[in-house]
Structures are given as structure tokens and as C-alpha cells.
Design goal:
There is one protein chain. The longest helix is centred in the N-terminal third of the chain and has 14 residues, at about 15-25. The protein is mostly helical. It is built from 4 helices and no strands. It has helices at about 15-25, 30-40, 55-60, 65-75. The chain has one domain (about 15-75). It is globular and about 30 Å long.
Length: about 80
């Protein structure tokens, strides 16, 4: 697994609440959600996954969890 570090930042309270709601809907942590976005910015040549709508819960529950997906990207 990749070495990890702590990254903190200040964001608007409403934005944080929206991120938490989205992460909960997707079944992942806010940290994982932000990490996925930061990876797409840092390495634009990687394949990007765009998740739209509530179908994502069904998709992740039938295949692999979002955490497993993110972990696989590190391998």
C-alpha cells in the first residue's frame, strides 16, 4: 500500500455537509472521495470514473466496494 500522510484544509461548512452526504450515498468516506478527485487532478492520464445518480449504491454493492476500488488503484 502507498505511504499515507495527513492533509488538512478549511472549507465552507455547507460544502463539507454536501461532501459528507455524497460520500454516504456512495458508501465511502469523505477522505476516499477527496482522494479520488485529487488523483484525477494529479494524474490526468489515468482512467477517470464518473459516478452519477443513485445507481452507484447498487453498482458498488454488486461488484466491489469503493474502498476496494481505491485500494486496487494503489496496487
Amino acid at each position: 500500500m502507498a505511504t499515507q500522510t495527513t492533509f488538512s484544509m478549511r472549507i465552507d461548512t455547507k460544502l463539507k455537509q454536501r461532501l459528507q452526504a455524497l460520500a454516504e450515498e456512495l458508501g465511502i468516506s469523505v477522505s476516499s472521495l477527496v482522494t479520488m478527485q485529487l488523483r484525477s487532478i494529479a494524474d490526468p492520464d489515468r482512467i477517470q470514473l464518473q459516478i452519477n445518480g443513485s445507481w452507484s449504491d447498487e453498482f458498488f454493492s454488486e461488484s466491489i466496494s469503493a474502498e476496494e476500488f481505491i485500494s486496487a488503484l494503489d496496487d
